[in-house]
Design goal:
This protein has eight helices and 15 strands. Helix 1 packs across helix 8, helix 2 crosses helix 3 and helix 2 packs across helix 7.
Length: about 325
């Protein structure tokens, strides 16, 4: 199929206004407006991540060039390809790299990207299920890989997930529970407890309980592993309360970017702090992790984790995710 460069499509586009603020609208553009790339994709689903909301608000650490189409995730079918790896009609996934950040992303009916950003949709996943995971689920999967790499098993003790009602956190709870761990969840939303119990959470901590402000260099050793999605002093707290030779994965910053800590958890308990960066995960490892998420790690009833919204409903959901008011995952249907 050869698509005309003038063929119109709908997209969620963000512009910088004359007052310096940023506004968004649903607009019609032509395929010729898309950036150059090897693979043209008809986007069937995308998803909403915290990073997308930052991009749409003009955060300079995410997107600098406007007008801009956010959306760091996309799943759809190939329309055209200059790469021998992909052919028209093939279902594919795009997550990470510069997609939706410095380059137009998935909040549009079409996207064009370099071939090395594209992953074939693995057997066992639908396009929608891949976006219920999206970057959030992929990040949670990377955390589980790190914990497994450190040979931490359910017999080592309970594990903790911070920011558990969010996208990364909720899928991390579900993946860890599926792997047999006793999972405790940190959330400031009592209304999310039943949702997290269905995903496998065995117990809960409030944000205050997970945010120790004393200067004790070590706290009671409780957790065999921790998936931290918030950063700040909560990350400091979980580092001080991880069991000897445990592992803490860090992938978020909503509680702050500064982490006041000492070296004691590392040199007296031998714990590991592992940074999780999903954007530029090498392609072979990226494809292998998608195979796990579609196969042995696939969560049952993924649909129960997500709400689907059209492009027109994005702005409201973006404000909610920035305010910490989203539970689970938001799938976007351009």
């Amino acid at each position: 199929m050869n698509a005309s460069t003038a063929e119109p499509f709908r997209c969620f586009i963000v512009r910088q206004q004359s007052d310096g603020l940023f506004g968004s609208a649903i607009e019609s553009r032509g395929l010729g407006d898309l950036p150059d790339g090897d693979v043209l994709i008809r986007v069937v689903f995308s998803s909403l991540n915290y990073k997308d909301a930052l991009s749409a608000s003009g955060h300079p650490g995410v997107s600098r060039n406007f007008p801009h189409v956010p959306g760091i995730d996309a799943a759809g079918t190939v329309v055209e390809s200059r790469s021998e790896k992909f052919e028209p009609g093939q279902p594919v996934i795009v997550t990470g790299f510069a997609f939706g950040a410095s380059r137009w992303g998935g909040y549009a009916e079409y996207a064009r990207v370099p071939a090395e950003w594209v992953v074939p949709l693995p057997a066992g996943l639908s396009l929608k299920e891949s976006m219920i995971y999206g970057t959030a689920g992929f990040t949670a999967g990377m955390s589980l890989e790190v914990i497994a790499h450190h040979k931490i098993t359910p017999s080592a003790g309970p594990v903790l997930v911070t920011g558990a009602s969010g996208g990364v956190g909720s899928i991390a709870v579900a993946l860890l529970a599926k792997a047999g761990f006793e999972v405790y969840a940190v959330t400031g939303k009592a209304s999310a407890h039943e949702f997290l119990r269905r995903l496998g959470a065995a117990g809960f901590l409030s944000r205050d309980e997970a945010d120790d402000r004393t200067d004790n260099p070590l706290l009671k050793a409780r957790w065999a592993a921790v998936v931290d999605t918030v950063g700040g002093n909560i990350l400091n707290t979980v580092l001080r309360s991880t069991r000897p030779f445990g592992c803490v994965t860090a992938c978020g910053l909503t509680a702050g970017v500064d982490v006041p800590m000492t070296v004691y958890p590392f040199i007296l308990r031998g714990i590991t702090l592992a940074g999780i960066e999903s954007g530029f995960y090498p392609l072979p490892r990226r494809e292998a992790l998608w195979q796990k998420l579609a196969g042995p790690w696939k969560l049952p009833d993924l649909e129960s984790l997500a709400t689907t919204v059209p492009l027109d409903g994005l702005q409201e959901r973006m404000q909610a995710i920035l305010a910490g008011q989203i539970t689970g995952r938001i799938v976007v249907q351009p």
